[in-house]
Design goal:
By secondary structure, the chain is an alpha/beta fold. The protein folds into 2 domains: 3-272, Spore Coat Polysaccharide Biosynthesis Protein SpsA, Chain A (Alpha-Beta Complex), CATH 3.90.550; 290-373, 3 Solenoid (UDP N-Acetylglucosamine Acyltransferase, domain 1), CATH 2.160.10. It has helices at 17-20, 36-45, 61-67, 97-101, 105-111, 113-116, 137-147, 204-217, 222-230, 251-263, 265-272; strands at 3-8, 29-30, 34-35, 51-55, 81-85, 123-127, 131-133, 151-160, 169-173, 179-184, 191-203, 236-240, 245-247, 290-291, 296-298, 301-302, 307-308, 311-313, 316-317, 322-323, 328-330, 333-334, 339-340, 345-347, 349-351, 356-357, 362-364, 371-373. The strands form 7 sheets. It has a 7-stranded mixed beta sheet with strand order 5-4-1-6-11-8-12, sandwiched between helices. Strand 2 and strand 3 (34-35) form a beta hairpin. The longest helix is centred in the middle third of the chain and has 14 residues, at 204-217.
C-alpha cells in the first residue's frame, strides 16, 4: 500500500487576508518558527508519504523559499519527493489574482489533471493548510480500506454556534460512519456536529475518475457538486479525529490559537511532543538568542537568533527579532526580523516580518481584534 499527498496551498487565503496579502495561507508563520504547511507536510512524512505535490495558484514565492528542495522534511529524493504544481492556465484565459483566489479544491484538481493521471500510488491524501493538528494518516488510510469507502473525510466533533457555523462543513452520518447528509457552511446551525478538517483519503483511480467527470460536467465544488450529488450511491465515510486541532478561519482565530499554545500545556504537547510524529520545519542556522542584563522573559516562546534587552511576557517571538532597552512586549506575536525600539510598549499586537517599531512608540490592540503591523512597515 502506497499513498500520494496533494496539498492545496491557496485554499482559504481569504480567511486571513491581513497575512496572505503577499503569501499563501500555507506559508503563514505560526508558533515561533513554523509555517502552516509544516504541520501538513509533517503529518504526511510521518505517515510514510514521500510523494507530495503542492498545488499553487498565486503568491507562492514565499512558500517556495520556505520549502526549497524539501530536504528538511526528507523530501529531497531522486524518486518522488515534493514538487509544486502551478495551475495549468492558458494565455487566452488571462486570469487575474481575484479569479485565482476563488479557486476551489475541484478547480485546483482540474487544473493539474495531467499530473494526477500520472500518479501510480494506490491512494491519495488531500489536505488543506488551514487546520493545525498532528494526525496519523496511516490510521486514516487503514480505516478507509477496512470500510471499503470511496472517500473518507476526517472530521472532529465540536459544538457549533450561530457565530461560527458559517465557516464549517458539517457531515451527518449513521452509526457506522457512512455519510448521509452534507451541510456546507450552514448559517443557522446550533449544537454538536462533525465538521470537516479538510483532509480526505480516496483511491487514486477514484480521484482520476472524479476529476474527469468534473471536467466533463463543469463541476466546480467538491462538496456540493461531487459529494452531495452522489451520496445516495457512493460509500462516503467519516474518520473521527479525537486529538487537538485549530481551524484558522479568521485573523482573530489566528491570534487566539497562537495564544492558546502559550497558555495550555496539553495543546503544546499534542502538537509538538508526540514522539513518533515530530513537526519539521526549515532549519535556519542562527546564533542562540541573547538576553541582555536587565531583560526578562515570562511564559513566552522565543526562537533563536533574537536579541532581547527589554521585557517579553506571554508572547511569541520569531527568529531574528530585536527587543530594545526598556521595551515591553505583552500578549503579542512578533514575526521574523522585526525591530522593537527602546522604550516601546506593545500589547495585543501582531507584527509581520521586517517591521520596525521606533523608540517610545505605544501600540495596543484587543484580544478579539489585535493591532496589526504589515510586513516591512515602520511605525
Amino acid at each position: 500500500m502506497s499513498a500520494y499527498g496533494i496539498i492545496f496551498s491557496n485554499i482559504h487565503d481569504n480567511n486571513i487576508p491581513e497575512l496572505t496579502r503577499l503569501r499563501s495561507i500555507a506559508s503563514v508563520p505560526f508558533a515561533c518558527r513554523y509555517r502552516f504547511i509544516d504541520f501538513t507536510l509533517s503529518n504526511m512524512v510521518n505517515s510514510n508519504i514521500y510523494n507530495i505535490s503542492v498545488i499553487t495558484s498565486y503568491n507562492y514565492q514565499s512558500l517556495m523559499d520556505h520549502i526549497g528542495s524539501g530536504k528538511d522534511w526528507d523530501l529531497a529524493r531522486r524518486s518522488g519527493g515534493i514538487k509544486f504544481l502551478p495551475p495549468n492556465i492558458t494565455a487566452y484565459a488571462n486570469p487575474t489574482a481575484g479569479s485565482l483566489s476563488s479557486y476551489t479544491r475541484l478547480d485546483s484538481l482540474k487544473s493539474v489533471a495531467a499530473s494526477i493521471n500520472r500518479i501510480t500510488d494506490d491512494y491519495v491524501v488531500l489536505s488543506d493548510c488551514d487546520v493545525i493538528c498532528n494526525v496519523d494518516f496511516n490510521d486514516m488510510i487503514r480505516y478507509h480500506q477496512e470500510t471499503g469507502a470511496d472517500m473518507t473525510i476526517a472530521v472532529k466533533r465540536v459544538n457549533l454556534t450561530r457565530e461560527n457555523c458559517s465557516t464549517a462543513i458539517v457531515f451527518n452520518s449513521d452509526e457506522d460512519g457512512r455519510i448521509n447528509e452534507v451541510l456546507a457552511y450552514p448559517g443557522d446551525y446550533e449544537g454538536q456536529a462533525d465538521i470537516s478538517l479538510n483532509m480526505i483519503v480516496m483511491s487514486t483511480s477514484y480521484l482520476q475518475q472524479m476529476v474527469l467527470q468534473a471536467q466533463t460536467r463543469g463541476y466546480t465544488s467538491l462538496t456540493r457538486d461531487v459529494i452531495a450529488r452522489t451520496l445516495g450511491y457512493r460509500n462516503y465515510r467519516v474518520y473521527r479525529y479525537d486529538g487537538y486541532f485549530a481551524a484558522i478561519t479568521s485573523f482573530a482565530d489566528y491570534y487566539r490559537h497562537s495564544m492558546e499554545i502559550l497558555s495550555d500545556a496539553e495543546v503544546r504537547d499534542s502538537l509538538f511532543s508526540v514522539k513518533t510524529r515530530p513537526v519539521y520545519t526549515k532549519v535556519r542556522n542562527s546564533a542562540p538568542t541573547y538576553y541582555a542584563a536587565g531583560s526578562a522573559a515570562r511564559n513566552s516562546m522565543i526562537a533563536d537568533g533574537c536579541f532581547i534587552e527589554g521585557t517579553v511576557e506571554n508572547s511569541i517571538i520569531f527568529r531574528g527579532v530585536k527587543i530594545g532597552r526598556n521595551a515591553t512586549v505583552k500578549n503579542s506575536i512578533i514575526m521574523q526580523d522585526t525591530i522593537v525600539g527602546d522604550g516601546a510598549f506593545l500589547n495585543c499586537v501582531i507584527t509581520d516580518k521586517n517591521a520596525v517599531i521606533r523608540d517610545q512608540r505605544m501600540l495596543c490592540g484587543a484580544e478579539t481584534q489585535p493591532f496589526y503591523v504589515v510586513k516591512g512597515k515602520m511605525i
